[in-house]
Structure to design on (614 residues):
């Protein structure tokens, strides 16, 4: 499969299109490079440059005091979390220890010192806790408990019209050799298929081709079945709608 | 399954229509449109008809080159159909650009174009430049009036010669259609041009003028494969005509008081046996089926169709540990869903589209 580079893609589905929604989330965070001062946003609004008892006041940007990651520095203290029951508080204090007397650890600080401070702050934060959704995400993967997570759907909802409703359908195609087989192209869920249309017992099946996740998530604007080979279906992505750019003062409606 | 990339020009190209030539299944046609950068129109070199002579493996951009058409306008394809009764096959393509970036000037190329396909697609995929004809254009008299504001255009083919079109306007609100027209001679002339006053609402006693439509979003016309005078129009509601488009009746009237059909129609397909057994239609609320055997029966097909599109969502604080935690999802035209241990929909406080939500 080629990597999708634009919104224009055609999906050619050959033979039986058995479709199951894929769950693509792997729960891992990226370890993005820091582009600004090393300050997790969750901390920034609460930092106070106050001295801490028992903590040295050596700025991390002082080359002479730069610790080596391989050896314990003699002039830079180990973090001393004050409240070990609250890991975020502990991480905040660790950060403040390392930035003191500044509000933030300068991005141009000695690289080894910066790495050393970063590692200590990171170590003080539980794995997977995102303390800075806007700028910095910490390395490590989230371990999600299956007993605490519930699949919320999206399932059809009972709407004000008094019937189950689901998401927008932009295009439909009926198998020319068996009209019980119908394909539906959706706005946010790829191509769905049924083989027992159209009754209250009709069952729709989502895409299951994990090799082509686009088939499960793409907005489908057009579907067509080869009139000479009903097992070949083309699906065009990108939507058949003309989207509106909302302007100030204009009404918003569906 | 295979996946094709057909454009790397840097513009978000979208596919609005697809067709396979039944005279030659190697030939696949895609109608596309694109937005430009920063709200400007995309270059003419992007949108338009793309044609593949090898079942989608490679594609060629085929510009429409009809005499008299603007040569610098974006070819924003809103629909296309093929007439396989000719060989080479005849193609009908609609350039139907709705309001772009908030201005209401119609694309001067908006209209309907036709040509014969290439006789030798592998060596020359595109229709010959001199074969293109423009058979309806913005500014033409339509429904007894001159309309300089053709917007989005959709097409339906019954057989060789008989086609229908429904045309939306390019007004800023996008709340009107210009009408429906029929041709019986392949577009040389258009007859039975009906304006929106022929669309009748559920009261059946007074025409709605115009019916609620939003043609930039919701627009199609379909013709029954066995009866050329039975025509469906999808706009805000689903309409049906049994007299070739002279009068359209709102199908929600069949279920008056129940309001069972979700607004904003986008797709319709026919299930056929000896005749049409039922139609399936898709809208902003999913899928329904209408069975025409007496009495007409409406079937909701959404029970296992989990495709709700979420525009935004959020969790209440301490979601993982709070036994009363809630998850909120703002949906496209389906209000707000709130998960509280039992998935259900909440009343709609701010209109149907819920774009921003916070649980905090």
């Amino acid at each position: 499969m080629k990597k999708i580079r634009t919104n224009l893609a055609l999906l050619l589905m050959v033979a039986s299109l058995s479709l199951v929604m894929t769950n693509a989330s792997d729960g891992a965070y990226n370890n993005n490079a820091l582009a600004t001062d090393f300050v997790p946003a969750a901390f920034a609004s609460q930092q106070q440059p106050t001295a801490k008892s028992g903590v040295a006041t050596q700025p991390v940007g002082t080359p002479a005091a730069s610790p080596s990651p391989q050896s314990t520095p003699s002039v830079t203290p180990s973090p001393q979390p004050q409240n070990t029951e609250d890991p975020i508080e502990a991480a905040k204090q660790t950060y403040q220890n390392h930035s003191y007397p500044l509000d933030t650890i300068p991005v141009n600080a000695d690289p080894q010192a910066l790495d050393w401070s970063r590692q200590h702050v990171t170590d003080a934060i539980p794995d997977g806790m995102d303390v800075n959704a806007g700028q910095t995400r910490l390395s490590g993967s989230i371990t999600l408990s299956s007993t605490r997570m519930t699949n919320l759907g999206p399932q059809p909802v009972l709407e004000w019209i008094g019937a189950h409703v689901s998401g927008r359908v932009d295009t439909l195609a009926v198998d020319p050799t068996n009209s019980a087989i119908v394909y539906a192209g959706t706005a946010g869920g790829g191509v769905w298929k049924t083989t027992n249309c159209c009754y209250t017992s009709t069952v729709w099946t989502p895409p299951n081709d994990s090799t082509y996740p686009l088939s499960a998530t793409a907005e489908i604007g057009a579907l067509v079945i080869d009139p000479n080979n009903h097992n070949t279906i083309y699906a065009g992505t990108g939507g058949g709608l003309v989207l509106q750019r909302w302007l100030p003062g204009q009404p918003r409606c569906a | 399954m295979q996946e094709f990339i057909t454009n790397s020009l840097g513009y978000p190209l979208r596919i609005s229509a697809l067709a396979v030539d039944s005279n030659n299944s190697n030939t696949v046609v895609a109608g596309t449109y694109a937005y430009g950068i920063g709200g400007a129109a995309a270059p003419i070199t992007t949108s338009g008809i793309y044609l593949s002579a090898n079942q989608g493996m490679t594609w060629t951009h085929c510009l429409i080159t009809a005499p008299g058409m603007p040569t610098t306008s974006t070819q924003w394809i809103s629909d296309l159909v093929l007439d396989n009764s000719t060989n080479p096959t005849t193609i009908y393509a609609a350039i139907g650009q709705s309001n772009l970036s908030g201005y209401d000037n119609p694309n001067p190329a908006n209209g309907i174009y036709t040509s014969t396909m290439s006789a030798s697609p592998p060596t020359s995929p595109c229709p010959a430049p001199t074969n293109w004809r423009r058979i309806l254009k913005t500014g033409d008299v339509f429904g007894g009036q001159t309309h300089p504001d053709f917007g989005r255009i959709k097409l339906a083919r019954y057989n060789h010669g008989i086609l229908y079109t429904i045309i939306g306007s390019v007004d800023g609100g996008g709340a009107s259609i210009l009408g429906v027209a029929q041709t019986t001679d392949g577009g040389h002339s258009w007859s039975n041009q009906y304006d929106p006053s022929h669309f009748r609402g559920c009261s059946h006693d007074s025409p709605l003028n115009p019916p609620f439509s939003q043609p930039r979003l919701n627009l199609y016309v379909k013709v029954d494969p066995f009866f050329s005078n039975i025509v469906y129009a999808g706009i805000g509601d689903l309409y049906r005509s049994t007299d070739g488009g002279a009068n359209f009746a709102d199908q929600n009237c069949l279920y008056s008081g129940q309001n069972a059909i979700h607004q904003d129609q986008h797709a319709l397909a026919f299930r056929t046996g000896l005749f049409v057994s039922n139609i399936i239609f898709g809208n902003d609320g999913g899928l329904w089926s209408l069975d025409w055997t007496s009495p007409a029966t409406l079937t909701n097909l959404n029970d296992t169709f989990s495709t709700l599109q979420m525009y935004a969502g959020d969790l209440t604080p301490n979601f993982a540990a709070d036994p009363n935690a809630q998850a909120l999802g703002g949906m496209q035209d389906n209000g707000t869903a709130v998960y509280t241990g039992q998935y259900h929909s909440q009343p709609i406080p701010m209109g149907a589209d819920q774009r921003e939500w916070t649980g905090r």
Summary: Chain B touches chain A through 103 residues (CB under 8 Å). The CA atoms of residues 92 and 114 of chain B lie 4 Å apart. Chain B has no helices and 28 strands.
